[in-house]
Write a structure and sequence with these properties.
The two termini are about 85 Å apart. This protein has 3 helices and 50 strands. It has about 650 residues and is mainly β. Mean pLDDT is about 95; it is low at about 1-20.
């Protein structure tokens, strides 16, 4: 059953592209014969009309011979005016011959319509000198062939054409009688179509008149006659969700042109087909053909301006770009709304350029971010308070990182916080959704940032931990992957807060995070060469931590002393834990025994530790309460032995 349905559908599709024309016949069209005889005797040439034979040579006696050649004038008056010819068939038959010779051939030629048929000599030599068109051996009679290609518009205009017949041998006794008959098949009804390349819509068409609007596809009715003039005009129009236009500029393959699909399905480019108007005189070659206006899609390019506090403003800066072409779009550098001045902060697809060059493949909306400096629309802008969000470098500059609009931002102030600039060229640190940033400094004026970032991994939204710092001597940030959740299966989803933290001193960095237990990665960064890692990409676990170990916080001395990383974290809600991580000369990390920093504080509920170096000693503070939701206090403990 499925096969039958498939064949039916296939037949329907094929039938929609084939138009069957109707034809009629003219059999044995009228003709006039002019038999000419060349008689040669005693050096004298005599040309007369003689119907004894049609073609061939006859040796009368020594020094006397005769040769026949005949003109056949065929009348086309029975052909209805303007109806195109499908085929013209010639049948030639030797009806009488005197002798047998397998080499004797009858030859058929086409003569000029201007030939004087009242002059035997003129006819004879016109036939003798004419270009051979067809020939056949006497023994192969009757001979049938298609001579459609011989018939010209001049013949149709004159309503006749003339064929000549001769024999190939001018000696021996090859004389014969030759009967020629011509049958014509001509079209009585047929189709000629004008349509758009997307088939439907509207198109302008007219036959021997100015084009007027029609529904595409349009079938000319009644059927055009030979030399009728079809006038076409393409129309710009909306259809199928796109603006369709006649395009004259851009890449060559996007230039609109008229093409013809003939009755065999061949697509043919037309001369001068790049004009929106196209005219042609109808010929037999146009039967069941489609003249096609190749309009191009003009893609609508909209912009949505996503503001930090005033929502999405849609259908901004609308422009159009013709398919296969590229062009620039731009968004305003600033956007004042409701008393706030927003700054352009990049595009949500990660492109920072403004203006930017695009090559659309469909109607598209591009979303531009607009940031209100030194503000966040997120109530969790400074979430993960166990790590630094604000630092001051030795040059007096303030640096801060925070969340807003689903992204991580880095701002800098050179005037002690009076004014701020959004770094990374005014853009978020990543075009991907990001959260939980942390920042640290070296012993001078450099900063380093880590955060958690979302990305798509085979359809799953998982996370990476990313890192950024300036690449000197330039002023641009450079970015690195610290950890990719895809190294473990199943990978942890982005929705899980891994709380990355970082410490940096003596060009050594240590990043820690929570993914099940606490993990870390240790490496080298100096802002001049590439950042590199001493520990593997899949991270190293802090022995003794588990799924209840959360809210990590880390610090390191900045005074050039021995590099020791101090790590603290919340263990469930019952304790604040601490250990140190010390690299040796070969950059191997040794981890100290885990200690309970909160021992003896007398309170059951403990959370959100934060660690820093005071003088040379690690100091941890945390929040405590009798139970969750109760009044909180802040506890502090300093390691007395220093580092």
């Amino acid at each position: 059953m499925k096969k039958i349905i498939f064949l039916f559908i296939l037949f329907t599709i094929l039938f929609s592209f084939v138009n069957y024309a109707q034809t009629s016949f003219l059999y044995d069209i009228p003709q006039i014969k002019k038999n000419t005889l060349w008689h040669f005797e005693d050096g004298e040439n005599i040309y007369i009309f003689n119907s004894n034979k049609d073609i061939g040579h006859y040796n009368v006696e020594y020094g006397v011979f005769e040769t026949w050649e005949t003109a056949y004038k065929f009348s086309l008056t029975g052909l209805p005016s303007g109806k195109p010819i499908k085929s013209v068939t010639l049948k030639a038959e030797i009806t009488e011959k005197e002798y047998e010779n397998p080499n004797w051939k009858a030859q058929i030629v086409l003569l000029e319509n201007s030939l004087n048929l009242n002059n035997a000599q003129t006819i004879y030599w016109a036939i003798s000198s004419a270009t051979l068109r067809y020939e056949f051996k006497y023994d192969d009679s009757p001979f049938t062939t298609d001579i459609t290609g011989l018939i010209t518009s001049q013949h149709l205009q004159d309503s006749y054409f003339i064929l000549g017949a001769r024999a190939n041998y001018s000696d021996y006794n090859s004389m014969a009688k030759l009967k020629l008959t011509v049958d014509i098949e001509y079209y009585t009804s047929y189709s000629l179509w004008a349509q758009n390349n997307f088939i439907n819509g509207t198109i302008k068409a007219g036959l021997n008149s100015a084009p007027t609007q029609k529904t595409s596809p349009y079938n000319f009715s009644p059927s055009p006659l030979i030399s009728d003039v079809a006038n076409l005009e393409a129309q710009n129009q909306p259809y199928g969700g796109y603006e369709r236009i006649w395009n004259s500029n851009g890449v060559p393959t996007s230039i609109s042109k008229w093409t013809k699909r003939d009755n065999l399905g061949n697509e043919i480019e037309l001369p001068n087909g790049q004009n929106v108007n196209y005219s042609f005189s109808f010929t037999v070659g146009d039967i069941n053909s489609y003249y096609i206006a190749n309009l191009m899609k003009n893609y609508r390019i909209d912009q949505t301006h996503r503001t930090e506090f005033d929502g999405d403003i849609t259908q901004q800066n609308t422009t159009y770009i013709v398919e296969q072409n590229s062009d620039q779009i731009s968004a305003p550098a600033t956007k004042p709304i409701n008393g706030r001045t927003y700054n352009f902060a990049g595009w949500t697809d990660g492109n920072d350029a403004n203006p930017r060059t695009i090559q659309p493949t469909d109607n598209t909306t591009y979303t531009a971010l607009y940031k209100y400096i030194n503000h966040s629309n997120s109530t969790t802008a400074y979430s993960n308070n166990s790590q630094k969000k604000l630092v001051r470098t030795t040059d007096g500059y303030l640096h801060k990182v925070y969340e807003s609009m689903g992204y991580v931002w880095y701002e800098k102030s050179t005037d002690n916080g009076i004014t701020w600039t959004v770094e990374n060229n005014g853009k978020p640190l990543s075009s991907n959704e990001s959260k939980l940033p942390a920042i640290d400094i070296n012993s001078g004026s450099e900063i380093i940032i880590v955060w958690q970032e979302k990305y798509n991994y085979y359809g799953d939204e998982i996370f990476k931990i990313r890192l950024a710092h300036y690449q000197r001597p330039g002023t641009q940030l450079i970015f690195y992957d610290v950890f990719d959740a895809a190294v473990y299966y199943p990978p942890t989803p982005y929705s899980y807060d891994v709380m990355p933290v970082i410490a940096w001193a003596n060009n050594k960095i240590l990043v820690s995070w929570k993914d099940g237990a606490l993990g870390y990665r240790y490496g080298y960064a100096d802002c001049y060469g590439p950042t590199s890692w001493y520990t593997p990409e899949y991270g190293t676990w802090v022995t003794g931590t588990d799924a209840n170990s959360t809210n990590p916080t880390i610090a390191v001395r900045k005074d050039g002393g021995t590099t020791v990383f101090h790590l603290a974290w919340q263990q469930s809600t019952s304790a604040i834990k601490y250990c140190s991580l010390t690299p040796d000369a070969q950059n191997n990390i040794s981890i100290s025994s885990i200690e309970t920093a909160s021992t003896g504080d007398g309170i059951n509920y403990k959370k959100n530790p934060s660690i820093s170096i005071i003088s040379t000693s690690p100091t941890i503070v945390w929040v405590r309460s009798i139970y969750e939701g109760a009044t909180t206090q802040v506890s502090r403990r300093t390691r007395s032995s220093g580092v």
